[in-house]
Design a protein that fits this description.
Arc Repressor Mutant, subunit A, 2 domains, alpha/beta, 10 helices, 46% helix, 5-stranded parallel beta sheet, 5 strands, Rossmann fold, 202 residues
């Protein structure tokens, strides 16, 4: 596989969603670089404007003033703008972007969208599903993303802490993801948990 160095900026208030998306993007393109900005003003101050190929934005950031996006776009002639959709937005707002990705999209689908925008062949997206989680592993994952410790999970599921740790290793191996934020996004994309579950705390 040819090495490439795609620079992607992400503007997303949720640390969990940012970490999960970064994990997916870097897995698909290990030679890329991910930059995080708090808002469009901070992005506008970024010096190396020409090196950003893709800018991913949560549309909620510009809902109050959609015109801001057009103003900032003028500073980034090379970039493709992608809406990161985690809730319902109007078509008028979403049409300001070159493409959109849903928070529930699979990693392969997200990688394909970025690859299409950058016309790069070096982003790898494996369409074949990984090994499926067992029912018990799904139960452990659900408890994990709701913030329970190994001991709490063991108590809830009436298994030993050692067994929980073993399940966690299997989950990380099958998903190809180690971080909790990455596993949370994985659980959402695999319909193991819903965004509503996460936002309501289960």
């Amino acid at each position: 596989m040819a090495e490439c160095n795609i620079h992607i900026a992400i503007i997303e208030p949720s640390h969990m969603i940012y970490e999960g998306l970064s994990n997916i993007l870097l897995k698909g393109n290990p030679h890329g670089r991910i930059l995080r900005f708090e808002n469009l003003d901070e992005l506008k101050e970024y010096r190396d404007k020409n090196c950003l190929e893709v800018i991913i934005v949560n549309p909620a950031i510009i809902m109050g003033d959609p015109g801001t996006l057009g103003t900032v776009k003028k500073h980034f002639h090379k970039a493709q703008w992608v809406a990161l959709v985690a809730s319902v937005f109007s078509d008028t707002l979403l049409n300001l972007f070159d493409a959109r990705i849903q928070v529930t999209d699979t990693p392969a689908s997200i990688s394909r969208t970025i690859a299409r925008l950058t016309e790069e062949d070096c982003i790898c997206a494996d369409d074949s599903p990984g090994e499926e989680l067992s029912e018990r592993e799904k139960q452990v994952l659900i408890k994990l993303v709701h913030g329970l410790s190994n001991k709490e999970i063991a108590d809830k599921l009436h298994i030993s802490t050692h067994t929980v740790i073993s399940h966690r290793k299997n989950i990380s191996h099958k998903a190809g993801i180690k971080s909790l934020s990455g596993l949370t996004i994985y659980a959402i994309t695999q319909n193991i948990v819903s965004m509503n579950d996460i936002q309501s705390g289960g």
